Amino acid sequence: MKLIQLIRPFFYTVIVGIEIDSRLCTLTLRYYKNGKITDTIQKSYKTTPGQFPIQAVRFINKTKIKHPFIYLATLPTSIVQGTICKDNEEGFHQYGINPKEIEYVKNYHWYAYVGKDGISETKSRFLKTGVDFIISPFMVLYALSKELFQEGCKLYVLFQKAHITMIVTKLGKGVLFGAYYVLESDIESQINLTSNNLKSGLDELEKIDVEQDLQDELKGIDEVDELENLEDDNLIKELKGENPQEKEEETQNTHGNFDDFSRVSSAAKFIQLALNEFYTNEIYESEFVDEIVIFNPHDINKDTLKYIQNVTMLNINIRSCNVSEILAHLGYESFKYFQTKGLA
């Protein structure tokens, strides 16, 4: 018996689900012993778009010292991904897909795939920690929605900040259609982040200039006795009539609301395109979609999301979710599969 097999029962198996979405990196760590979850830890880090933050790298590498049997699961960074709703690989050509250029996994009567270049790109993002399981967002969305399948045909949407993933399903038939769109590329997100930071910096400079001007004015009116008992800072606040911290929070909220509406507006157009493709393309077994279920992991305002209902004229059902939790769960399922093969 190998040494690793002898010592393994004394250690936890730790699965880390990692979601990097726009400017936020979220981790869910699940600790398993004898096939049962014994503990769950969640961490969040701000990051630059498309980057795995160094704070998360340090945390994971520190965890590895104590828990050597640790496995990382994340989403692929590729626009070349989708679903193939066929029973076998012979149907790939109908979708214009070359099996040699993709990695794919079968789930009942459909496949989820991602381009091999996207797999390589994802691995390069995690060079400092390594990554064990790269899981399709379609598998994440399927895991979220499968308990909700009904007789009617429904469109399920995973609405992340940077991407939107869609599947159409029907009970007993699995996935009938899938689509994946980019709402905000890493480059666009970085430009927006830089622009917002620059504006905040200019606002701060303007605030400093105003305060300095007021200070200078106060120094020039010493002869007014009533002003001697007033503190300069209080007078500045009185004259400005605003709280800088409140103004900053209000500005951030305004930017966030505008960004969310912009994303929702784009998403509504993509949903219309996807539905039109599903209804008109002969390769799909199309049926009328009677409801849209939106999984909302980053708490985009529900009233804003209802814009999609106005555009599509379909009822929407909004549900919260945690993508990193689902990734940790699917990562453990992948671990068990490879363990039965003697590969984990």
Question: Could you explain how this protein is built, in words?
Answer:
The protein has helices at 3-7, 54-66, 116-125, 137-145, 186-219, 232-240, 244-280, 302-312, 323-340, and strands spanning 13-21, 24-33, 36-46, 70-74, 81-84, 102-107, 110-115, 133-134, 153-159, 163-170, 174-182, 289-295, 315-319. With 344 residues, the protein is of the alpha/beta class. The protein has a domain at 1-75 and 325-341: Ubiquitin-like (UB roll) (Roll). The strands form three sheets. The chain has a five-stranded mixed beta sheet, with helices on both faces. Helix 4 (137-145) packs across helix 9 (323-340) and helix 7 (244-280) packs parallel to helix 8. The protein starts with a helix and ends with a helix.
Characteristics:
single chain, 344 residues, alpha/beta, Ubiquitin-like (UB roll), 5-stranded mixed β-sheet
Can you lay out the helices and strands and say which pair or pack?
Blueprint (H helix, E strand, L loop, with lengths): L2 H5 L5 E9 L2 E10 L2 E11 L7 H13 L3 E5 L6 E4 L17 E6 L2 E6 H10 L7 E2 L2 H9 L7 E7 L3 E8 L3 E9 L3 H34 L12 H9 L3 H37 L8 E7 L6 H11 L2 E5 L3 H18 L4
Parallel strand pairs: 1-4, 4-8, 9-12, 12-13
Antiparallel strand pairs: 1-2, 2-3, 5-7, 6-7, 9-10, 10-11
Helix pairs in contact: 4-9, 7-8
Concise description?
This protein has nine helices and 13 strands. With 344 residues, the protein is an alpha/beta fold.
